[in-house]
Write a structure and sequence with these properties.
The complex is a heterodimer.
Chain A: E1 16-17, E2 24-29, E3 35-42, E4 49-52, H1 56-63, H2 69-75, E5 76-80, E6 93-98, E7 101-106, E8 115-120, E9 137-142, E10 154-158, E11 163-165, E12 170-175, E13 188-191, E14 216-220, H3 223-226, H4 231-236, E15 245-250, E16 266-273, E17 286-288, E18 298-301, H5 308-314, E19 315-319, E20 322-323, E21 326-331, E22 336-341, E23 348-355, E24 386-393
Parallel strand pairs in A: 1-9, 11-16
Antiparallel strand pairs in A: 2-3, 3-4, 4-7, 5-8, 6-7, 8-9, 10-12, 12-14, 13-15, 15-16, 17-18, 18-22, 19-20, 19-23, 21-22, 23-24
Chain B: E1 5-8, H1 12-15, E2 24-27, E3 52-54, E4 60-64, E5 69-74, H2 92-99, E6 107-114, E7 121-127, E8 134-140, E9 146-148, E10 155-160, E11 177-185, E12 188-195, E13 201-207, E14 217-223, E15 228-230, E16 235-243, E17 246-253, E18 257-262, E19 272-273, E20 275-279, E21 286-294, E22 297-304, E23 309-313, E24 332-333, E25 337-339, E26 345-350, E27 355-362, E28 365-372
Parallel strand pairs in B: 14-19
Antiparallel strand pairs in B: 2-10, 3-4, 4-5, 5-10, 6-7, 7-8, 8-9, 11-12, 12-13, 13-14, 14-15, 16-17, 17-18, 18-20, 20-24, 21-22, 22-23, 23-25, 26-27, 27-28
The chains are: A mainly beta, B mainly beta.
Chain lengths: ~400, ~375
């Protein structure tokens, strides 16, 4: 308990309240000459603001009053403390009589470290004869701030290689902990070999490009600049020029899920290579078949990196049209996919299965380059088309 | 070694079964019984709240991007009750933040929709920005009074978008699909989605009342500025509009073709060819659009990120030749008039025959404003 202020001196008893589960008392001299001692404070779980000291008769009337939110707010208003003294709207919440106290439960939990002003005006209590406002009491309650230090970092970037085609379409940033769910557009920059920002590189979309737990963020290069012949491409060219070195910068100011900046900025240096503008072909892939009777991995090597995100769900193995259970890993700069079956390989035919949306880092698909869209292939079936490459286990 | 591990389970989706799993559920956290026809209610209601649009009988469709789902919410008594109409509210972001117990930087306003009968504004808000972020819905009545809608206890039905196709089940799929816009057209909700992996838009039609989610229909357009057939430009915003008495969608894409499609063509598995009728300039994206009538003519009003507000007469839409060649100028096709009086428009909806309701950003604060239709 820090202070008790007499409203006879000041109608607003400002009490700074920082310690938990400690109620403090305010004495109100009521117009009828009597006085009452009210207590205002956070409950022990820090979830509600409780007012004690209300006469039992008034409490029982409150319990059945059926008041509107406005009526409750006249009696007890909780608001965010303004920085400029302006009147703030009441925090939305529920009012209940719980035993001997009047309880306010906010619709959303109180923020840690944020001061809230509680104004309680006993004149609005049923059966109390007093001029409203004259006896109102005010207190400031603040949940303790949670001390945090920046700890989240960019843990991985894909493509992971330091040489990517100049028509790269997207990249993935992985974080060590969940991030703020808002767009990361302002925090990702492309710097040229002089350290100057390459403007208008990425697609300025507000859409949620996070995964479900906000540890992976997808950054799309502006496809208008990537694709040849498009006005932005003709005006500005591609963001990346073959043969030049670049740095992908992730600014430290990007906030994590606790509102903290990153522990450090992230830089990934790479060189732009010649653009890849031809479709993927499964026949270009190298398959190393494992021996029969083992659980050794099937190794598939691609001539160039494939998209890390799509690779995780667009490749599989089947036998006689039946899926084969197993685990897959991606490595060597996303140029190698290894599949380890749960059960030993059997002699005979298998198939590597790729879904049509598998892409390389420049958006080229099997049989369909990003540069060449083809009407004939538009949504021919509602299911993704499958491509297969048979292989045999025989040794 | 940089590697990931994934469990390859059944290749079900790739090899045989349909990817579409429509989910219908009634959600009610209050005491009223769940409608008998509905399957078991999901445990949690909205995780997030994004685009909003009203449907028949004042039902509010609210997109939950985090759950790749759309809720159809019966607002009950909270749909009305205040003063009808709309009113200017200055610093509305500050007021909303205060009512939610926080500060403006800790909220994000995600959409604005005008109730079809009361003409009150409904504003979708995310409260918090981290793991504790929660959805909120705020109503602003004709007296400028704000109230937070209590979503608990409201009756809702839910349609979940199909799972991402995958060659293997198992590990949690990092693919998410964001919902960029929605509109209700003749018994169906049309939903535009955008994935965080494949760079492609999906338009889905969901019959309402929800029974299932149909397969998305990939949409192919000719992007005039691009000089190529463009399948991968995301649909950002669209409105239903009748062209030659036939229901169409007028859709805005990134950098910035305006495209029309017949609604009837949005069938599962169908090949859809949109007609690019205007090219509104590059380096820009449309954030919101409405259709209105003035002096016997129809117009489209488009809010853009970097090219301000545009007014487009729809009369040429029916006979506008599709743009099939490279647009060499900044813009092309159907013409538009820049509306310079409207600045900083983030969100837009039609209020009545003469007025629109907008959320406009001025310096560091946001205002709800009633503006005359230009």
């Amino acid at each position: 308990m820090r202070a008790i202020a007499s409203p006879a001196v000041s109608p607003y008893a400002k009490v700074q309240f920082r310690h938990l589960a400690t109620l403090f008392a305010l004495t109100a001299s009521l117009a009828c000459g009597t006085s009452a001692v009210y207590s205002i404070g956070l409950n022990s779980q820090l979830e509600t603001i409780d007012v004690g000291g209300i006469p039992p008769r008034a409490l029982s009337q409150l319990a059945t009053a059926g008041w509107t939110e406005e009526q409750w707010q006249a009696l007890m208003k909780v608001s965010v403390q303004s920085t400029d003294g302006a009147a703030m709207p009441a925090v939305t919440g529920r009012y209940d009589v719980a035993g001997a106290i009047l309880r306010f439960t906010p619709r959303f939990p109180f923020d840690a470290g944020r001061p809230y002003v509680v104004r309680f005006d006993p004149a609005w209590l049923p059966g109390v004869q007093s001029a409203p406002g004259v006896t109102s009491l005010a207190a400031v309650v603040t949940l303790p701030a949670i001390a945090r230090t920046p700890s989240t970092v960019v843990s991985q970037i894909y493509p992971s290689a330091h040489r990517v085609p100049a028509n790269q379409l997207r990249l993935y940033l992985h974080f060590s902990a969940p991030m703020d769910w808002r767009s990361g557009y302002d925090y990702v920059k492309l710097l040229d070999d002089h350290g100057q920002e390459v403007p208008d590189t990425f697609l300025p979309l507000d859409a949620d490009f996070w995964n479900a737990d906000r540890t992976r963020y997808t950054v799309f290069y502006d496809p208008g600049r990537v694709k040849r012949g498009i006005l932005p491409n003709r005006q500005m060219g591609r963001a990346l020029e073959a043969g030049r070195r670049y740095t992908l910068l992730v600014k430290r100011e990007w906030r994590d899920g606790h509102g903290q900046p990153l522990k450090e900025e992230f830089r990934h240096e790479f060189t732009a290579a010649r653009a890849v503008e031809r479709p993927l072909a499964m026949s270009d892939w190298t398959l190393e078949s494992p021996p029969v009777g083992t659980r050794n991995a099937l190794t598939v090597t691609f001539p160039a990196a494939l998209d890390h995100g799509l690779l995780q769900r667009a490749l599989g193995v089947a036998r006689d049209g039946t899926p084969v259970d197993g685990d897959a890993t991606i490595d060597s700069g996303e140029t190698v996919w290894r599949f380890t079956p749960r059960a030993p390989w059997q002699r005979g035919g298998y198939a590597l299965v790729a879904l049509e949306f598998l892409e390389d880092v420049a958006g080229n698909r099997i049989g369909r380059a990003f540069e060449v869209d083809n009407f004939e292939r538009t949504d021919a079936t509602p299911q993704p088309e499958r491509f297969t490459r048979p292989f045999t286990i025989e040794r | 070694m940089r590697s990931i591990s994934l469990k390859a389970g059944a290749l079900t989706l790739a090899l045989a079964a349909a990817t579409t799993v429509g989910v219908l559920a009634a959600v009610r956290s209050g005491p009223a019984p769940v409608p008998a026809a509905a399957p078991q209610a999901p445990a949690a209601a909205l995780q997030s709240i994004g685009p909003l649009t009203f449907g028949p009988g004042g039902v509010l469709f609210a997109a939950d991007r985090a759950a790749a789902a759309i809720y159809a919410i019966d607002l009950g008594a909270q749909g009305s009750g205040g003063a009808a109409g709309a009113k200017d509210v200055a610093e509305i972001d500050k007021q909303i933040a205060s009512m939610l117990g926080t500060e403006p930087s800790a909220i994000q306003i995600t959409d604005l929709a005008v109730h079809p009968t009361t003409r009150n504004a409904f504003i979708a808000v995310m409260r918090g920005t981290g793991a504790d972020a929660r959805p909120a819905l705020v109503r602003v009545d004709g007296a400028g009074k704000l109230s937070v809608v209590a979503l608990d206890g409201l009756t809702m039905t839910k349609a979940t978008l199909p799972n991402a196709p995958a060659a293997a089940e198992g590990r949690r799929n990092p693919r998410m699909e964001s919902i960029t816009d929605m509109a209700y057209v003749d018994g169906k909700l049309v939903v535009a989605g955008l994935s965080n992996e494949e760079f492609a838009s999906k338009l889905r039609t969901i019959p309402y009342p929800f029974a299932s989610v149909e397969n998305g229909t990939s949409v192919e357009i000719y992007h005039g500025n691009h000089g190529q057939l463009e399948t991968r430009s995301p649909v950002i915003s669209f409105v239903p509009y009748k062209v030659n008495n036939t229901p169409h969608l007028i859709a805005g894409y990134t950098c910035t073709p305006l495209v029309k499609f017949p609604v009837a063509s949005l069938a599962p598995g169908a090949k859809v060819l949109g007609t690019t009728i205007a090219e509104l300039g590059s380096g820009n994206r449309p954030t919101d659009m409405i259709v209105y009538s003035k002096d016997g003519k129809d117009y489209l009003l488009i809010a853009n990120t970097s090219r301000g507000v545009m007014k487009v007469a729809t009369e040429p839409f029916a006979n506008a030749p599709g743009i099939t060649a490279k647009v060499t100028a900044e813009t092309g096709g159907v013409g538009f008039e820049p509306i310079t009086a409207l600045k900083g428009i983030d969100q837009l909806d039609l209020l009545d025959a003469q007025r629109a309701l907008v959320l406009a950003r001025h310096r560091h604060e946001m205002a709800l404003q009633v503006v005359a239709l230009p």
